[in-house]
Each structure stands twice: as structure tokens, then as C-alpha cells.
């Protein structure tokens, strides 16, 4: 199959000085993108940019924080000043503070939200303006299986990462007529943040295998938008947010609901995959025969 190139594209990678972000930035540079490498660690950002340049690519380093709106504006402005446009935005910057919920303080909450969820907003808002004006672009956000499926000692992190899923879904719908694709990655890779979480699996979790999926999502020819893709160790898979057919009674009572709940959550085989909230609401409409010809309008 032909190699995917990013010739002429400008890519912004946050948290690009270490781990996954560095893998993304390096591969983008190798494939012809001009890369802005953002990282709070100035030396790491400069080192990653030098590696790209030494390999024949073009890159600049930038050290603003994604945790505040001014930082997000500065990062995107630096890319536009250096290269004239922004075609790819990879929101990768992250921070981890695993704690039992009883030990969580509001400083933990504010830090995680400001980096993971608000940090995505801080970059997307200015990038969206440029992508809209130039006729399109690609955004890859970073979610996590921790947010989608849960994990002890990760309430704050999970909250932020699930918020990224909702943001991704909505922006994909709004971005489609503008030529802007928005997806999210749920990465599994050896990293400083993961530490020894993966045990004996860790050596098989090369960040390059996640970078392969991120670049596929970011490429101008990718037809996918609004998806959350799990990636790690060479495996990639679609993560679904779905609903079962459930239980229906037109005069549902508290007692009926209590009796039905165990079977409703027991893993029915009939699974629906709504494309948006109105699609899920339409499953209620389908329970009423008199509304058979009146599907919920998608928004």
C-alpha cells in the first residue's frame, strides 16, 4: 500500500516532548509535516524539534501551557506565525494524579480538568477559527479507557477523559460541513504516566504503534470522524457507546422499574449504536406504534 504523507501540512502536537507526543511529532515530521512541538519541558520540546530537523524535517518548539486560554492561543499563534496555517491538531498533553476518592482535593480536580478537558478547548477554539477559514483540518483528541470504562483511584482523570468524548462527538457533527474531522484516541502505551501499570505487557506497548493510528486519523484522506479508537500494541478497535433494546411499559411505575432493572443491565444481546443523542431518543419513539411514521429529527 502507498505510504501516507503529510507534505505541506502543518501539525501541532501538545505534550510533544516526551512519550506518545514525541512519537507523534517525530512520525509527522518524517512524513513531511511541518511540526510545532509544544511541551512545558522546554528542553524536551527543543530536543524533539531538533530530532525532527536532524532527520530532514521542519519543526519548532513551543512551551506555553495548555491549561489556560492564553496558552492555547499562543500555541496556535506560534504555528501560524511559523508556518502560515494549522492542518492537524493533536491534543496529547496530560497529567496523572491517581488517588482514592477520599483523598482527592479540588486542586487535583482543577489541574486535571484544566489540562485534559479545558486544555482541549484552549487549543481547539483558536485552531477551529483557522481550520474554518482555510476549509478544513483534522483534530485528534486524547481520551482513555479509564474514562470510558472506569478504574479505581481515577475519578478525576476519568471525568476529564469522558468529557473529551462528548466534546469530540459534538465537534465532529459541527465540523463536518466545514471540512473539519474530529476523532479521539484511547491510547495504551509504555510511558512515564503509566509507569508500571502494564507489567509484563509493557515491552510490547511501543508508542510507535499508537502513533500509527493517530497519524491515520489525522491524515487528510481519512474518512473517519466522531469516533473513539482504542490503540495499543498493534491493535486498534472502535470503542462503542451503545444502548440495549431495554424494557418498555407505557405506564412505567417505580415498582416495575425496580423489577426490570436487573434484567435491563444484565447484558442483553440486542445492542444499538446511536449516532447522536436524538438517535438514542428515537428508540423511545419506536416503542409507540402511533408514532411509527414520525422519527426524531437529527440535529
TrEMBL record:
Instruction: Give the matching InterPro entries.
Output: NAD(P)-bd_dom_sf (IPR036291), Peroxisomal_Beta-Oxidation (IPR051687), Sc_DH/Rdtase_CS (IPR020904), SDR_fam (IPR002347)
Query: What keywords are assigned to this protein?
Result: Oxidoreductase
What Pfam families has UniProt attached to this entry?
Answer: adh_short
Superkingdom assignment: Bacteria
Q: Which family does it belong to?
A: Belongs to the short-chain dehydrogenases/reductases (SDR) family.
Q: What is this protein called?
A: SDR family NAD(P)-dependent oxidoreductase
Q: Native species of this protein?
A: Nonomuraea ferruginea
Amino acid at each position: 500500500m502507498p505510504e501516507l504523507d503529510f507534505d505541506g501540512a502543518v501539525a501541532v502536537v501538545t505534550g510533544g516532548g516526551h512519550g506518545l507526543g514525541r512519537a507523534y511529532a517525530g512520525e509527522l515530521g518524517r512524513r513531511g509535516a511541518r511540526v510545532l512541538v509544544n511541551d512545558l519541558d522546554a528542553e524536551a520540546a527543543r530536543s524533539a524539534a531538533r530530532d525532527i530537523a536532524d532527520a530532514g524535517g521542519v519543526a519548532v518548539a513551543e512551551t506555553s501551557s495548555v491549561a489556560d486560554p492564553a496558552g492555547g492561543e499562543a500555541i496556535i499563534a506560534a504555528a501560524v506565525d511559523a508556518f502560515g496555517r494549522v492542518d492537524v491538531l493533536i491534543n496529547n498533553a496530560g497529567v496523572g494524579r491517581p488517588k482514592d476518592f477520599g483523598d482527592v482535593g479540588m486542586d487535583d480536580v482543577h489541574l486535571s480538568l484544566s489540562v485534559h478537558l479545558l486544555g482541549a478547548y484552549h487549543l481547539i477554539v483558536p485552531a477551529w477559527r483557522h481550520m474554518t477559514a482555510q476549509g478544513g483540518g483534522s483534530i485528534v483528541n486524547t481520551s482513555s479507557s479509564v474514562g470510558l470504562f472506569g478504574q479505581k483511584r481515577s475519578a478525576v482523570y476519568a471525568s476529564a477523559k469522558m468529557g473529551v468524548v462528548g466534546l469530540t462527538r459534538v465537534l465532529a457533527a459541527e465540523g463536518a460541513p466545514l471540512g473539519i474531522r474530529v476523532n479521539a484516541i484511547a491510547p495504551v502505551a509504555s510511558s512515564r504516566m503509566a509507569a508500571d501499570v502494564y507489567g509484563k505487557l509493557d515491552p510490547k506497548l511501543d508508542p510507535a504503534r499508537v502513533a500509527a493510528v493517530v497519524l491515520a486519523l489525522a491524515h487528510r484522506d481519512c474518512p473517519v470522524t466522531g469516533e473513539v479508537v482504542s490503540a495499543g500494541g498493534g491493535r486498534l478497535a472502535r470503542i462503542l457507546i451503545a444502548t440495549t433494546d431495554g424494557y418498555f411499559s407505557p405506564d412505567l411505575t417505580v415498582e416495575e422499574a425496580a423489577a426490570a432493572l436487573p434484567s435491563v443491565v444484565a447484558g442483553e444481546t440486542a445492542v444499538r449504536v446511536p449516532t447522536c443523542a436524538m438517535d438514542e431518543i428515537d428508540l423511545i419513539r419506536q416503542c409507540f406504534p402511533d408514532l411509527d411514521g414520525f422519527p426524531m429529527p437529527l440535529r
